[in-house]
């Protein structure tokens, strides 16, 4: 019996919809990479791969931030405003003489503050995650514009230039930061009581409450972590662009959600896959990179991301 099951195992696994749901990001990455390799000779050049991975590093940090809220059966729509808000705080504090280190701390704290407010509104005022973060999206978009007077800030920092362009051998600092964030999140979800409690909160909230898990505290915590990681992404973005713009990178919301769900995490919570999230972020970045190399109009790129979001939602039906 055992030998028969083993022999039939690979075929049965391929016929199992769960397999395709769990590995959609990795399979998609391989197929998309192969297609662009054939369509353009510039795709596999060292310079393009480096630029692709640098862009992916920022999205990986944002997707990890989104992962914390989605695992707890929530969602954060305010990322699209919290990211430029944190960047604006960096620009304001840096130009006010706080120095690079002070501005980095301020940006991360500003992001964490927004996340904490989201968590408190959701946990204490019992407002739906979607509505609360949608409202915060509008609020922080306006606050960022008011604080910056609608203007961007130039940032000239040797440290940020080194962060954006420097490397250890072929390993860019951006990759290392993204790797540290992903590994830290993996350790939290896999090996800590906090991570277990977050997973339980997302998996079955009432059962977790009956077990004595402080549900409200968990929800505030995941949104605070989410916000702090958005602040980290804002620092990376400022270092890459050399400035802080209140309207920068507002299209990252859909991408952060798509990367998480495409990577194998359930929109209904209780399931985390950091490796899948990385693969999902790489799929989206590769897709946009390939379109740029093929000179596809930027008007079509949001359509592609939207299609991926829908596909990810469909695939989530097959995840267990």
Shape type: globular
- Helix/strand/pairing class, anyone? mainly alpha
Average pLDDT level: 87
Give the spatial strand order of the biggest sheet.
Answer: 1-4
Strand content: under 5%
User: How many strands, what sense, and barrel or not for the largest sheet?
Assistant: 2 strands, antiparallel
Helix content: over 70%
How many strand elements?
4
Catalogue the unreliable spans. 1-7
Radius of gyration: 20 Å
Instruction: Determine the number of helices (DSSP H or I, runs of at least 4 residues).
Output: 14
* Cα-to-Cα separation, first versus last residue: 26 Å
What is the N-to-C succession of helices and strands? HHHHHHEHEEHHHHEHHH
Walk me through this protein's architecture:
One of its GO terms (molecular function) is transmembrane transporter activity. This is Sugar ABC transporter permease. This protein is mainly alpha-helical and 320 residues long. It has a domain at 48-247 and 266-272. It is 77% helix and 2% strand. It is built from 14 helices and four strands. The protein has helices at 2-15, 17-22, 24-39, 46-71, 79-124, 129-148, 158-165, 173-191, 193-203, 205-210, 215-241, 252-262, 274-293, 301-315; strands at residues 153-154, 167-168, 171-172, 243-244. The protein has a two-stranded antiparallel ribbon with strand order 1-4. Helix 4 (46-71) crosses helix 12 (252-262), helix 5 (79-124) runs antiparallel to helix 11 (215-241) and helix 13 (274-293) runs antiparallel to helix 14. The longest helix has 46 residues, at 79-124. The model is unreliable at 1-7 (pLDDT under 50).
